[in-house]
Design goal:
The chain is mostly beta strands. It is built from five helices and 51 strands. The strands form eleven sheets. It has a 22-stranded antiparallel beta barrel. A five-stranded mixed sheet has the order 9-16-17-12-13. The longest helix has 17 residues. The radius of gyration is 27 Å and the shape is globular. Belongs to the TonB-dependent receptor family.
Amino acid sequence: MRLPFVKGYVGLLLLCLLALPSLAQEKVTLSGYVKDGSSGEGLIGASVSVQELPGVGVGTNEYGFYSLTLPKGSYTLLYSYLGYVTLSKEVVLAAGQKLDAELSQNATALQEVEISTRKEDENVRSMEMSTLKMQVAEIKGMPALLGEVDIVKAIQMTPGVQTAGEGTSGFYVRGGGVDQNLILLDEAPVYNASHLMGFFSVFNADAIKDVQLYKGGIPAQHGGRLSSLLDIRMKEGNSKKLAVSGGIGTISSRLTVEAPIIEDKSSFILSGRRTYADVFFGLSGDENIKDNQLYFYDLNAKVNYTLNEKNRLFVSGYFGRDMAGSKSFMMDWGNATATLRWNHLFSDRLFSNTTLIFSDFDYALGSREKESEFTWKSRIRDYGLKNDYTYFLSPNSQLRFGLQATYHNFMPAEVKPGPESYVNNLKLNSTSALEGALYLSNEHRITDRLTLDYGLRLSSFTNMGPGKVYTYDEAFETPIDTLEYGRFEKIKSYGGLEPRLSAKYELNDMSSIKASYNRTLQYLHLVSNSTSSLPFDVWIPSSTYVKPQVADQVAAGYFRNFKDNTYEGSVEVYYKWMDNQIDYKDYAEIFLNERLETELLTGTGEAYGAEFYLRKQKGLLTGWVSYTLAKTERTVPGINGGKAYPLRYDRRHSGNLVLAYQFSPSISLGASWTYATGGAITMPVGRYEYNGKTYPVYSERNGYRLPDYHRLDLSATYEKPKNEFKKYNSSWTLSVYNAYNRKNAFSIYFRESEDDRTRTEAVKTYLFGIIPSLSYNFNF
C-alpha cells in the first residue's frame, strides 16, 4: 500500500483523538448488547433511551452494541425495537458497567398491537432520510411470484425505486443504472443478484435478518457506487435452542437449521434452497427435454463465537448457482462470498470491526454441438479488508472512522473451442485494480432539535496490469500502437474527496425536516445493452479511456407521524447531477469486443423527482402507499444529435399499494398493486432500400414509450393455531401473481407485416398471465 495512503489514515486517527472532548469526572459509561430474547440475535438499530433525561438516547450498531455516557446517578433505561415489547431496566450508575438486554417479540393478536411505548419515533427522530428499513417478516407477508419471497422485489414496491422490467430482479434508484447500486451481503459485494435470468434474486429470506436501502445520504463508510446501497445482513444463528424452518413451494424447497454450539456463546445457521424444474424434465417422456437442465440453488452459512466480553468472531458465506442447458447448449453463473469479521471493544466507548472479504461472480456459456463446440467464461473477483471504528463520544456525538482496501481481478471473456470446432480461441484483455478509501464522520446532536451528520471519504483507484492499452488515430477508431503492462504495473490512477452532510431539525415530537448532500465516485462499470439483470454482462474498471463516474445529490424532506405513531408519512424531493456517464454509440458492437472503449461515449446526466410515502404499522390492517414523480435524462455528445434524451428506465409516474390484513388469529390476507408509466424505447420510424436490402430508420434515442405497466398480486396465509405446548408450527400460503391477467409488455420487436410486406408492424411480447402458487411452510 502506498505511503501517502497510510499517512492519510494516521492523520485521520490523530484528528479523531483531537476531536475528543474533555469529559467531566462524574460521568460514567453504560454499554452492552440488545438482543432478541428467543434467539440471542443482536438487534440492529434498537433504541436505548433514558426516561429521566428526555432526548438522551442512542441506537445500537450493526451488531446490536450500544454505549451511553451519563452523569453518575440512578436511571430507568428503556430498550425498544420495532415489533418487540419495550423493556424497562433500573440501573444505579456509580462506575462504568456493562448491561445487556433481551427483548421479547410481540405476539400476533386480533386487538391493535402497540409496537413500542417510546415517545421517540424512528421516522421523525432518526438522522436517516432517503432510507428504507424492512422487516423480513413484513416481506414474507407480501404476495410472491411462484411462492418465492423476494427481498429485491419488495424494495421495488417503495418510492424512488424502479423495476428493470416484468419479472426481473434488477432495480434502478433515483435515475441511476443497475450497476450504480452497491449490494452487500454481510459486507461482501454481490455483483449479480439474479436467479433464472432475473426472475428471482439470490437472497433467501429465511437466512436474512436485516434489510436496509440507502437512496441518498449514504454513510461515509460506504462508497464505490453512485445511486444506492442495499445493505443485507444474515442471521447469526439461534444461540438459545435448536430451530428448524423451511418450506415446499411450486418451484423450489428450502430448509434452514440454526442452533447453539455453546449456549449463549456460539451458534450457527445453515440455510439452503433449490428449484426442481429439472426433476420434472427427467420424468417427461419427451426425449427433446428429458435431459434438459434448469435449476438454481443457494446456500447460506454462518458461525459466530464469543471469545470473551471484548472479542467476538463471525464467519459467513454465500454460495449460489444457476444451471441451464440441453443437448446443444449450456450456461451457468453464480456468486460466492465469504467474510471473516472480528468485533473488538477497546473500551466501553470504542468499538471496532475488522473484516476480511472475498467475492466472486462468474459465468460460462457454450455450445455442445461438435462443429461449433466452445466454452465462454468471464469473471470478476474481489479480495477486501475493512477496518471500521465507532467511538461513542457522548450521548450527543458518535464518531465513525476507518480504512478500506479492495483488490479487483477482471477476466472479461475467454473462449475455448472444442477439438472439432471451427470456433477460434479468444481471450480479452484481463486486468486488475486496487481500490482504497479512508473515511471519518460524526453524528452530532447540536441542540435538542438540531442534529448534524457530517463526514468525508477519500477514495483512490489504480488500474494495474497485466494488460495492454491501445493508442488510436484521431478518429479514435483504428489502433496505431500498443503498450504492454506487467503484473501489478500501474496503468492509470484516479481518486477524489467525497463529502457527506445530513441535517435534521425536529419541529415537534411528531414532525421533522431533513436535508442531505453527498458526492459519490464509481470506479467500476457494467457493460450491457440490456435493462434486465442478465448474467452475461461484463464489469470493467476505470482505465486510460474510461473515467470514474461522479454524482452529486441533494435531497430534502418533511417527515410527519399521526395518531400516536400509527401512521408514518414523508415527502422527499431530490436532484442529482452526474458526470462521466457511459453510453454506447449507435449500432455499437460490444459483444466480445477487445477494444470496447471505441464503442463508448461519455456525457452528463441529471435526475430529479418527488417521493410521497404513507405507512401504517399498527393494527389489523398494515401496509403502505407510495407515489413517485421523477425524470432522468442524459446528454452525450455524439448521441441523439447532442440533445438530452431520457434513459430506458425513465418513468415519469409510479405508484405502489401494499396491504396486509390479519383477518383472524390463523388467517392473514395480503395484496399489492403497482403502476408505472412505460419506459423509454427507440423505435424505427421508416426504412430505406440500398443495393436490394432494406434498412430501418430509427427515431431519436428513446423517443417513444412502452405501454403503462400495472399489476395486482394477492395472497392468503393459513397458520395453524398456536399453543404453549406445541413446538411445531406450520402454514399454507396461496399467492396469485397478476390477478387480473394484465399483459404487460416485456419487449417490442418489429417485423414485416404478413399481409403487406411494404409495412412494418410492432409485436409486443409478455411473460406472465395469471400465475397461482401454493407453498407450505414450517418451523419448530
